[in-house]
Amino acid sequence: MEKIKSFTINHDTLQVGMYLSRVDGDINTYDIRLVRPNQGYYLSTASLHTIEHLFATYARNSSFGEQIIYVGPMGCRTGCYLLTRDTMTHEQVIDLVKRSFEFIESFEGEIPGSRKEECGNYQDHDLFLAKKDILPFLNRIRDYSVENLQYQD
Question: Which residue among 19, 35, 69, 101 has the highest number of C-beta atoms inside a 10 angstrom radius?
């Protein structure tokens, strides 16, 4: 079998950041890398679950909501994927991600979609840790540009 592109990226050198991972027709996949892989710290499931709920809620309620295909966690617990239609420019996606994570940083209250009848694992959320976990990423993308979207060798 052919190795998928994300497995060809050297995860030992991959930094916290946002990367354009794939382009499939009119769908762009962004790698939202919140922690460095293989460095001993991984997002807890409760933190990642909370980040996913807040990120997806903000992105889908933004003016670009109709262009958001998917927001979801990485199985390795180092970040999230964001899939968008290519009708959004890379600059718009960067700005949306930045605003989404600023929203998470300042969020207070009940996590959207976290009630028992709304979520398959409603007890596995941690807002405090989610806010702490996003800070390195949020600091990294404050001055992000399209050039930063390329994986570095």
Answer: 101
Mean pLDDT of 51-58: 98
pLDDT at 153 over 70: no
- Spatial neighbors of 82 by CB under 8 A, at least 6 apart, are 29, 30, 32, 55, 59, 68, 70, 71, 93, 97
Compute the average pLDDT of residues 60-81.
97
Rg (CA), the chain: 15
Write out the DSSP string of 63-111: TTGGGEEEEEE-TTSSEEEEEEETTS-HHHHHHHHHHHHHHHHH--SSP
Query: What average pLDDT does this structure show over 120-145?
Result: 96
Is 149 inside any structural domain?
Answer: no
Indicate the pTM of the whole model: 0.95
Query: Domains in the chain: how many in total?
Result: 1
Are 74 and 49 in contact, with CB atoms under 8 Å apart? Answer: no
Question: Does 152 fall in a domain?
Answer: no
Look-up of token digits 């596995």: 124
Instruction: Identify the CATH number of the domain in which residue 137 sits.
Output: 3.30.1360.80
